Every structure is written in C-alpha cells, then in structure tokens.
Structure prediction request, 870 residues.
Amino acid sequence: MMTGEKSVNLWIKRRRYSLDLTQEDLAECVGCSGVTIQKIESGERRPSKQIAHRLAECLRIPLDEQEAFIWSTREACSASSSADHSSHLTSWHTPPGHAAPTNLRSPLTPLIGREGAVADAHNYLLREAVRLLTLTGAPGIGKTRLSLQVAAELLAEFTDGVFLIELAAISDPDLVAPTIAGTLGLKETASYSILDGLKQFLVGKSDSGGRILLVLDNFEQVLDASPVVVELLSSCPQLKVLVTSREALHVMGEQQFPVPPLQIPDLSHLPDVQTPLNYPAVELFVQRASATDPSFALALTEENSRTVAAICVRLEGLPLAIELAAARIKLLSPHEMLARLDRQLGLLTSTARYGYRHEENGGTRNLPLRHQTMRAAVDWSYHLLHTGEQKLLSRLGVFVGGWTLAAAEAVCTPDPGLEADVPSGIESLLEKSLLRRSDGGHGSQHRFTMLEAVREYALERLQASGELEAVKRRHALFFLRLAEEADMKIWGPEDVTWLARLDEEHDNLRAALQWSKSTEGYVEIELRLVVALGRFWEMRGYLSEGRERIASVLSRPETEEEKLKPLRGWALVATGALAFWQSDYPAARSAWEEALRIFKELGDRSGVARALTDLGDIAREEGDYNMSALLCKEALAINRELGDTHGTAVSLVLLGWAEMRPGYFSAATTHLQEALVLARQIENPNRIALALSALGEAMVRQGMHDQAVTLLEASLAIRQRAGYRWGIAATLGTLGWAALRRGDPISLGRAMEMLMESISIRKELQDKGGVAWCLEKFAEIETGLAQGRPLRAARLLGAAAALRQTIGTAVDISDRPDYERIVKAIRTELGEEAFVKAWEEGRTMTFEEAIAHALAARLGGSISATVPAT
Prediction:
C-alpha cells in the first residue's frame, strides 16, 4: 500500500483524489476541520488515533490493512513535521512487508559468515523461556552487527516494535532508563521515576497483546543498570531484550550467547587459491580490501591468497581487526602487512607498551587473548600513522556521540603539534577505517564518529601523553560556548536550527557536564553549562534530568561564593522553570524566591524582573490573580526602564493572562497586542507564539471563536516547527476549548480530537495542572453528547479535583460559572448518591487511569449541543 514513511502523506492525498473527495468532504466524513486534513496531507500535523481510525474508514482501507495504515499515518506525519528539529527523537518507520515499528536501518554492507549465529540467536529469542539474550565477546568481534541482523529478522514476531537502544555514548547507569525512554518517544518526568513510566508503557503494550524487542547495544559500560533490565522484564511479560556486552549481566533468567570469531582456515590445508575464499574471515578481508582497491580481488594469486589467509589467522578472525588491516591494502602488500602484524602482535601480547595498562588485572598480558589481539590490531593501525595523525586520533577520543569538523578543529589544535591540518587528518583517518562519517541532522554539516573500541584506545593514548585533562577542558569549553550561543539563538528566528544542534550534541554536552562536575576547580563551567542548557531541557522535555543536574551543582558550597552568585541566581531561575512545567509549584516558588533574593543583593535589575515575572506565573496558576498582576506590573516597569524588549514582551504576556482570567479583557488585549508587536520586532518565534496563544485564549473567553482559532493555529504552527512540546499541548488544548465553546456536533468532535492530542502530550510531560484542565473539558464534552454520559463525566471531574489538590490549584475564577453549571447538571441527572459515588471513583484513580478513562471516550452516534456556547 505505502512504500515508505515520507510517502504516506502523499498517498493519503492520492487516495482522496481517487475517491473523488475534496479536503472538506474528507473532513466532514472524519469529523474534523478542512485545515486539519490539509495539514495531515502536507505532513505538518500528526493525527490523533481517533482521526487515524476515521481516515482508515473514510478512505476505505481494507480491514486487514487498517492497523498498518493507522500506525504508518501517525508516525509518518510525526516524522515529517519534526524532521528538521527533533533529531533527538528516534525516527520510527515500518519496513515494507512488516507492520511493526522500528528504528533499525538497512546496513550498508552484507553480514558475512554469521548465518549459523543468526539462526541460533533467532531461535533463542523465539523460545518462551528466554526473555534476555546477551551477546558477549571481545571488542570488534561483531556483536552489534550480529544483533542488528537478528533483530531485523524478528520484525514480524514483535508486533509492537523492535528498537535499537544505543548506549555507547553514556557511562552513567542512571541514564539507561532515560535513553530507552527517549528512543521509545517517552519523556523524562519528576512526578514519578522514568523507570516507572517505562514499565507502565510496556505493561500497556503487553495488556493489549503486543510484543516488543529492545536491543541494548554496548551495555558493558553501564553494567550497574542491570537491575533496570530485570525490572522491565519482570513488569512486562511480552517484552524481550537482546543485549550486546563484553561481559554478561549475570542476572536471573539471562541466556548468554558468546559470539565466536569468524571462521579461519587451517594454513596447513590450502590446496588451491580459491580455498581461503571459502572461509568467512578471508571473504571479509577480500571484500573490504576490494572496496578500497577494486583491483585487489582480481590480483589474488596462490601466494598472496595464502598470505591473506595468514593475516586473518593472525588476527584470529576478529571482524574489526580484519577490516582495519584490509583498509591498508593500498599502502601495504599482503606480505608487508603480515610481517608488520607478526611483530606488533607479538610485542603487545607479551607486555604492556606505549603507555597504557590495565593495572587492576596486572597489565595487558592478563587480558583475554582476543582482547589483546583487538588492541594489537588498533595499536598496529595507530603506529602506521604519522605523528600528526596519531595526535589527532588520540585527541578525537574525547568526543562522545560524534563531532563536527569545527568541533574537531577547536578541540584538537591548541598547538603546532599536529603535523597535518585537521580536515586532512580526518580525511586520512576515514580512509584508514579508524573514523566513520555521517550526514548531520541540521544543514549540510558532516558528523564523524569512531568505534567504541577505537575510542577507548584513543583515550588511553591521550592519557599516556599527559594531554587528557587539557583536551577534556578544551572540549568542555567548546561545548560551553556552543550551549551559550544556542541559548541566545533559540530566542530568535534561528530557534529550530540551534535546538537541533543541541540535540545532536547532547552526548557531548552531558560529557562536558560530567567532566566539570568531577574535576576540582571547574564549578563555574558546570554552572554556566546548566544555565545555558535550561531552556533546551525545558523545550525538549528533559525536565527531571535538568533538575537533577542543576541540583547537583547548586549543592556545591563554591556556588555560594560572591563571584558565582550571579550564576547561582540564574541556575535557580532555570530549575524553577523546569519544576514549574512539572506542576511542582512549591519547588519552583522556593527556587525563584531565592533567585529574587540573590538578584536584589547583587543589584541585578534584569534578574529581579525575571524572578518577579516567574513568581507572578505561579500566583496566576494558583488563582491569586491580583498578586500575579502586581508582580508582573513590577517586572514590566523594570524591563521598560532597562529597555529590555524581550523581558518587556514576556511581562506583558503574563500580565495579560493575569488580567483576562478575572475578566479584564480590554486591558488584557491591549497588553497582549503590545507584546505581539514587540515579539515580532525582535523576531522571537517563541514569544510570538506565546502572545498569539494568549490572545487566542482571550478571544475564546469572549466568545470570539473564529478569531481565536486563527490566532491559535498560527501559534500552533510556530510551536510545532520548534518542537516545543509543552507549548504544542497548551495550544491544542485551547483550540479544543474553542471548539467546545461553539457547542455544535461537529465542533464537539473537533474538541475531542484536540483535547485527546493535548492530554497525551501533557501525560508525557507530567503536566498535572494541564491534565486536570483537560479532564474537566472532557467532562463538559460528555454532557454535550446526544446520549449524555453523566457517570463518566462525574468520574472525570472527581479525577481532576484530586489532581488539583495534589498540586494546590483550583478552577480559574472565570471558569467557575461553567464548571459549577456542569457539576449541577450532572448531579441533578444522576442523583446525589450516584453522583458522589462516581466522583469518589474518579478521585481514587491514578494519574494514568484518569487519562486512560478520558481517552477511552469515543464520539459515537449523533451529538447534540446541550452545552451552550457562552
């Protein structure tokens, strides 16, 4: 039906044409707006599950293809709308002939000599008793490549997806759960642990009969996270896990699978020139050498084929070692190569040389032979490099998750020690298979990476040279400058580009934070990093991680020193914002009040204005509109005095919100329109979207629905472009509210669609205040159905009340008349006893149960406008 994720949107349009339907015709059939269909077909919008189901029906998709269509439509639209700004999100796709989502990609080269291992691993994972299969082996033996092949062949068996979780870039076991969650599209939260969120997600899949396979690659550096794997497996009976690791996890239920080297020939039994080619190790060498020098395979003779066989035997059939050797075929003949390998391997396996050891085990000689051989192969390749290339390779080892050419030039060239310039050096290392290249996610920049085994070796060489700390410091400073520049640029027209750059460099930024945290005397770098990354963490949903990192640095006594107080104040502002978006108002208030005290002590008027504005934000959410307005007016006066256009725009928006809630619409509209003008003057997309959204809410509250939708859809487009998930959820919710206020049957359907999308995102972000608001709107929809569902409505209102109690908020004063009218209508229809019972049932629901109860609603039959537009 559809050949790829990027073609799904076009397929929908062509299918509509073939059925002779206009966009309005399809919208009427689906029960949404024509604008929604237009955005789905252009890839700008991701349809809700309900809309996807209705599309399948209205487009007359065969029943046996509907499930694949629904999944593909939602994921393709999601990928299309975020391809330019959400490189931190895994790109899922559905391979042709499969219904299971996956992030696996087609390999660039065939897998050689692993047919038996693939079949064995495949069979293990199909056994009911095997839930955890661990592929073990030395670096470079091919664990990752084998796991990917096995996973690809199991796509049809795991109906809810096969996902690769890449762990090579992390060393902190605490980041394993967030990394898995990020790959699955889940977000970090503070209200409950990310592990609990993962378990709930996986249990939900299991309960619906789905099966998931997770491939955890490079687990050896996070072995302390083994209990996480056990917890996930224990919680979800339909989950299976395939791990690659140099060491087994040694947990209950683990099936170990040692990955053997490639088969090598017996050098004493090679009757003819073709015999060595029948062995996978030699076949791999010839294939890789021929890719470097196309004439190589044609020049094979009896003598050099035996020499190639001897090389593969000397390298013990290790795929990576063979590839590194084959990459040198232009430089060395097979005979020269074998002679060098004989010398190098013998030296390395007899003693620890060249400045690196494993003292814990008594030196390199105590490493397993295959580990020694792998290290020897890398060492051999290293010593074929000239001095400049050697220095460059070792310095590149500080990068985590890849780097750009600009980053390499900044970090690796502090002195004339490099004999070649960095671009030429990187090109040379690429040719020698010591580096790999991929296209960057933003613009046309290339990114470069190295295999983890090579990176470990490079770091050892760097430490032996005495340069490790100096290069790590340059690395941290480079990414600090990048983060600080991004923090400025994401407030302007280049927001998408700079957010994408931070997405790409997230692993390097984490490494810089870890180095500054663990190195004495660099608390200032750590503080500057967390301040610069605060907005990124907020927009990308790394709320818990951001709060934990900021809390860690603020706990250091040095941050109380006078020279660091300004940074401490802004770090408190950042952590307060992260807490605020998780509805943790006590924590946010505490942080912002301390920041206000620091800024007043320092005489930092800009900081004072920001803290006052933030505190006004909390006051509004807690229903104290007078205090909110007072705080925002005080901040506004300071920002105007300072000539701070950005700060002025923000203060005006928050003041407008504080004014509109109790019904002062004229003043609110005046302030919001001024904020919009200022935001456009400074070309700040985020603030433009904020002002548009606030103006849209003001229009909704005044019953000006057409104007509201125009403003809100403009805001939504900006926020979707930037990938600002909280902003997207908030605007979708207000659009749903605008449709609900109309009260007609089609509008109730649109309201349900918008609110379903909004509450799903808010659930991921753990925005309890926003979820409570959505639940109240769902209850209002339930009372508007032709066959009203008062029991469901009462439960939803009870669940919302319980949520509000946990975060200390109440229904807005301006919303209370509608709210009390709905409660009274439900109470009258049910009777007091039934109403109280349903309300209490709602109050006892968990956060997830309440959301599930809301999402279970389906608009069936006709809808009557029993809820009047007000």
In short: Confidence is low (pLDDT under 50) at residues 1-6, 76-91, 345-368, 859-870. The CA atoms of residues 401 and 506 lie 8 Å apart. The first helix runs from residue 8 to 18.
